[in-house]
Amino acid sequence: MGLKEYKSKRKFEKTPEPKPELRPEGDALIFVIHKHAARNLHYDLRLELDGVLKSWAVPKGPSLDPSLKRLAMMVEDHPFDYKDFEGVIPEGNYGAGSVIIWDRGFYHHPSAKGKEENEKFLREGLKKGDLKFVLKGEKLQGEFALVRMRRDEKSWLLMKKKDQYANESSILKENRSVLSGKTLEEVAEAGQGKSPKKKLDRIRQREALESEDLKDAPVKPAPHNIKPMLATLVKEPFDDPEWIFELKWDGYRAIAEMRERDVSLYSRNHISLNRKYPPVAEALQKLSLEAVLDGEIVVVDEQGHPNFQMLQDYQKTKRGHLVYYVFDLLYFKGHDLTGLPLLRRKEILRKILPSHASRIKFSDHVLKDGVLFFRVVSEKGLEGIIAKHAQSLYQTGKRSRQWLKVKTRLTQKGVIAGFTEPGGGRKYFGSLVLGVFEANELVYIGHSGGGFGAKALRTIYEKLYPLIRKECPFKTEPETNAPVTWVKPEIVCELTFAGWTGDGIMRQPVFSRLREDKTAHEVVREKPSSHHSLP
Ligand code: MN
Question: pTM here?
Answer without folding.
Answer: 0.60
